[in-house]
């Protein structure tokens, strides 16, 4: 069923595993991620960036599609529908009004006082309606949805303010991770993770999950991460499979057949990811 992230993240933090946020882009993507979660008996968070939401026709379309798929596919594992990197109160409000069960408000590009204020406003609106909220402090490197940023480590006191004053349910504390592919091995602030996790008590969220080696994923989970976001990796495997299909078959034109290998690749990679994060059989 569709629910917010509070319960799933509390269980994950307790049980030392992470719930995956897998970002979706279209119908096939959503079917593939739901199929993978059900097959692994795992909770899952469907991440929708503002850009992907717009691409699919707006948050109202996304919410209607997800609700109907959860029902028609007989999905029994916990599923959250989450706005990824919401940029304003209006954007978060529209997602919640449409039926998203969770939102991220990313005020990390604003001064901390503004970040706390806008995050608090979203938390008040969301909590009254049963939705959960993720906030961000520090900046994740790389580019996502056209937004490019340098790496800026989260400040411990600022993290504490977003958790205590704004009241978020999950905290994205940027500590060296990058959106999009890593050039070389990721260099993450593992000491800071532990410190911020203990100081704030909030479940931590790791952005830029694509391409982080398993051993670093495990260390991040041990140090307080209960949610890890993966977007780019699914895009890469989807496109590679579709490209191979088209290269191998110059007669195919039915879009369902064109996209089928891409969908299968997402199911496979999503299942591997859920297993790597330790959430299989935790539904
Ligand atoms: O918010 C989404 C994630 O941080 C995705 O990062 O595309 O590098 O996997 P990624
Ligand atoms: Zn992100």
What labels would you give this structure?
lyase; 50% helix; binds glyceraldehyde-3-phosphate; TIM Barrel; eight-stranded parallel β-sheet; 283 residues; EC 4.1.2.13; Aldolase_TIM; alpha/beta; 11 helices; 18% strand; globular; binds zinc ion
Order of helix and strand elements from N to C terminus: HEHEHHEHEHEEEHEEHEHEHH
The CATH top-level class label: Alpha Beta
The CATH H-level homologous superfamily:
Aldolase class I
Mean pLDDT: 97
Q: Looking across the biggest beta sheet, what order are the strands in?
A: 8-5-4-3-2-1-11-10
Pathway: Carbohydrate degradation
GO molecular function, one term: fructose-bisphosphate aldolase activity
Binding site for dihydroxyacetone phosphate: 180, 208-210, 229-232
Binding site for Zn(2+) 1: 85, 179, 207
Question: How would you describe what is shown here?
Answer:
This protein has about 280 residues and is α/β, with parallel strands linked by helices. The chain has one domain (about 5-275): Aldolase class I (TIM Barrel, Alpha-Beta Barrel). It has helices spanning about 5-15, 25-40, 50-55, 60-70, 90-100, 110-130, 155-165, 190-200, 215-220, 230-250, 255-275, and strands at about 20-25, 45-50, 80-85, 100-105, 130-135, 140-145, 145-150, 170-175, 180, 205, 225-230. Helix 2 (about 25-40) packs across helix 4 and helix 7 packs parallel to helix 8. It is globular, with a radius of gyration of 18 Å. The mean pLDDT is about 95. The structure holds glyceraldehyde-3-phosphate and zinc ion (ZN). Zinc ion binds near residues 140, 144, 179 and 207.
């Amino acid at each position: 069923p569709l629910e917010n992230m509070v319960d799933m993240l509390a269980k994950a933090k307790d049980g030392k595993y992470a719930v995956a946020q897998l970002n979706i882009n279209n119908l096939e993507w959503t079917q593939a991620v739901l199929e993978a979660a059900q097959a692994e008996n795992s909770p899952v968070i469907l991440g929708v960036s503002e850009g992907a939401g717009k691409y699919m026709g707006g948050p109202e379309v996304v919410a209607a599609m997800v609700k109907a798929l959860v029902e028609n596919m007989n999905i029994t594992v916990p599923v959250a529908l989450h706005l990824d990197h919401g940029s304003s109160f209006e954007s978060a409000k529209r997602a919640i009004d449409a039926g998203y069960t969770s939102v991220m408000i990313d005020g990390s590009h604003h001064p901390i006082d503004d970040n706390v204020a806008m995050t608090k406003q979203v938390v008040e609106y969301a909590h009254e309606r049963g939705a959960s909220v993720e906030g961000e402090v520090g900046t994740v490197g790389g580019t996502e949805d056209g937004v490019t940023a340098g790496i800026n480590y989260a400040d411990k006191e600022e993290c504490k303010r977003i958790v205590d004053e704004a009241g978020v349910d999950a905290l994205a504390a940027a500590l060296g991770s990058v959106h999009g592919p890593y050039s070389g091995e990721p260099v993450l602030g593992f000491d800071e993770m532990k410190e911020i996790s203990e100081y704030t008590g909030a479940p931590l969220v790791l952005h830029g999950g694509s391409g982080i080696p398993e051993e670093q994923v495990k260390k991040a989970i041990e140090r307080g991460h209960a949610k890890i976001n993966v977007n780019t990796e699914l895009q890469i495997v989807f496109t590679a499979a579709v490209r191979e299909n088209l290269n191998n078959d110059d007669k195919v034109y039915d879009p369902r057949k064109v996209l089928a290998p891409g969908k299968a690749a997402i199911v496979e990679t999503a299942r591997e990811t859920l297993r790597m994060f330790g959430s299989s059989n935790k539904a």
